[in-house]
């Protein structure tokens, strides 16, 4: 169905694009060191017998090429060039000091044979596969314990051909959790940029137990009805910068995670220092930015700005439940434009699938110091569904300068929430009506707090240290 846009819609988009134009002039806070893109050694995948006809399986060619390039890891690293063509492959591993570079007409295709995606152990912070007990299929592009890895190109494509996996999932015929498209574990100095990622079987880009990660200028696409095809999921990772991305998927565009119930609590690896800037996208069943629901290791110091979500289910969500434990604190989100979104802000405390029966139902999450400001939206069904947990009130929720055109008669629904607001339309719920000014601004999380807690005076400067 062709969607018609009102004048208000157009003005909102123009306002957002003005935001983008202004911020793009400033230097990027997610700078990648250009010297790291220049590798002294380079080979093409065709030198190892790969055939780009979309039919020949090239798993061995990728594995052999990367095995050969490993000999240059202590000599400045190497580049594996993927030229124009359709390169069918199963799962393969990356190495340290490697650049995987795709030509603009190159497409890496995931095999539709599950045997080409080996089964690996569950993540220790999850205790089992996310969907099924036991192991999980390994991602198409995989790496662990790596340093200095770049996945980039001239807007080539990595296509997981996920439809077969989605069908198996819907028919409940899978034995193991579906694979991600890209997963890097226990790695540092990761850059993913200038590519299109499409049709992931499960989550698309999954840095887990990683540090110093940049995801920049990527497009992520999956059908709006594809199950659990999250875009970018930083998981128990720190110093992550995501910017200038367009994401349209069947679930969350970005979901920040840190482990599941007792396994996440025990593993105790939080996600912290996450920067998200200039994100555009939409979804049908998920959120623009979600925190959780697996957040048992803790999530803190998240800064997001210049976001535009349209024709979506939810814009900003915190998902948790009894038994999660952990915390979500010090979250600062500003400059958000919404068009045609069902729910602008949601705190969902009933997101309660658990990995097994051994979780502690008395492990209550701590949700505090959440600031959302400078939000405009048109054709919004509900402004906010903010549901804390009885006996576990979510504290210091601060809303500032929010103007939404809401179509429902009950724009806000709040329970077990405490906080403050100023300049919010429609008028917010009773637990948040106390004004931020003049007495409570110090109770709200501010950008200056974020910079102090990050230990630097220039937003994102931690990214320049590697």
From TrEMBL:
It holds the Pfam family Glyco_hydro_28. Keywords: Glycosidase, Hydrolase, Signal. InterPro entries: GH28_Enzymes (IPR051801), Glyco_hydro_28 (IPR000743), PbH1 (IPR006626), Pectin_lyas_fold (IPR012334), Pectin_lyase_fold/virulence (IPR011050). Coiled coil: none annotated. The keyword RNA-binding does not apply. The keyword Transit peptide does not apply. It comes from the Eukaryota. One of its GO terms (molecular function) is polygalacturonase activity. Residues 1-26 form the signal peptide. GO terms for biological process: carbohydrate metabolic process. Belongs to the glycosyl hydrolase 28 family. This is Pectate lyase superfamily protein domain-containing protein. It comes from Gossypium raimondii. The lineage of its organism: Eukaryota, Viridiplantae, Streptophyta, Embryophyta, Tracheophyta.
């Amino acid at each position: 169905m062709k969607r018609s846009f009102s004048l208000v819609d157009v003005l909102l988009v123009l306002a957002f694009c003005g935001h983008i134009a202004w911020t793009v002039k400033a230097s990027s806070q997610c700078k990648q060191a250009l010297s790291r893109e220049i590798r002294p050694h380079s080979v093409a995948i065709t030198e190892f017998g790969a055939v780009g006809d979309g039919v020949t399986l090239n798993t061995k060619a990728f594995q052999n090429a990367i095995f050969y390039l490993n000999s240059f890891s202590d000599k400045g690293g190497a580049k594996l060039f993927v030229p124009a063509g359709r390169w069918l492959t199963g799962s393969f591993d990356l190495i340290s000091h490697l650049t995987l570079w795709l030509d603009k007409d190159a497409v890496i295709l995931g095999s539709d044979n599950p045997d080409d995606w080996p089964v690996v152990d569950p993540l220790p912070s999850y205790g089992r596969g996310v969907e099924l007990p036991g192991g999980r299929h390994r991602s198409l592009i995989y790496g662990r314990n790596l340093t200095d890895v770049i996945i980039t190109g001239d807007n080539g494509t990595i296509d997981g051909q996920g439809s077969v996996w989605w069908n198996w999932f819907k028919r409940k015929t899978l034995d193991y959790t579906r694979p991600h498209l890209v997963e890097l574990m226990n790695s540092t100095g990761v850059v993913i940029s200038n590519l299109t990622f499409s049709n992931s079987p499960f989550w698309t880009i999954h840095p887990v137990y990683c540090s110093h990660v940049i995801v920049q200028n990527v497009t992520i696409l999956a059908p709006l009805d594809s199950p659990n095809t999250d875009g970018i999921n930083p998981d128990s990772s720190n110093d992550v910068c995501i910017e200038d991305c367009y994401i349209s998927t069947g679930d969350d565009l970005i979901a920040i995670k840190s482990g599941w119930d007792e396994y996440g609590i025990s593993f105790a690896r939080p996600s912290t220092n996450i920067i998200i800037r200039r994100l555009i996208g939409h979804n049908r069943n998920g959120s623009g930015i979600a925190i959780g629901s697996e957040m048992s290791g803790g999530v803190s110091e998240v800064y997001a700005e210049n976001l535009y979500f349209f024709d979506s289910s939810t814009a900003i969500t915190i998902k948790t439940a009894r038994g999660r434990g952990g915390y979500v604190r010090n979250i600062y989100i500003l400059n958000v434009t919404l068009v045609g979104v069902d729910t602008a802000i949601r705190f969902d405390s009933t997101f309660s699938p658990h990995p097994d029966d051994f979780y502690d139902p008395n492990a209550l999450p701590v949700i505090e110091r959440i600031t959302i400001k400078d939000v405009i939206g048109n054709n919004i069904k509900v402004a906010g569904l903010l549901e804390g947990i009885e006996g576990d009130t979510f504290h210091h929720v601060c809303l500032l300068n929010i103007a939404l055109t809401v179509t429902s008669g009950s724009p806000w629904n709040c329970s077990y929430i405490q906080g403050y607001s100023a300049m919010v339309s429609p008028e917010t719920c009773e637990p948040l009506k106390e004004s931020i000014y003049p007495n409570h601004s110090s109770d709200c999380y501010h950008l200056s707090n974020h910079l102090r807690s990050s230990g630097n005076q220039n937003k994102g400067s931690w990214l320049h240290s590697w």
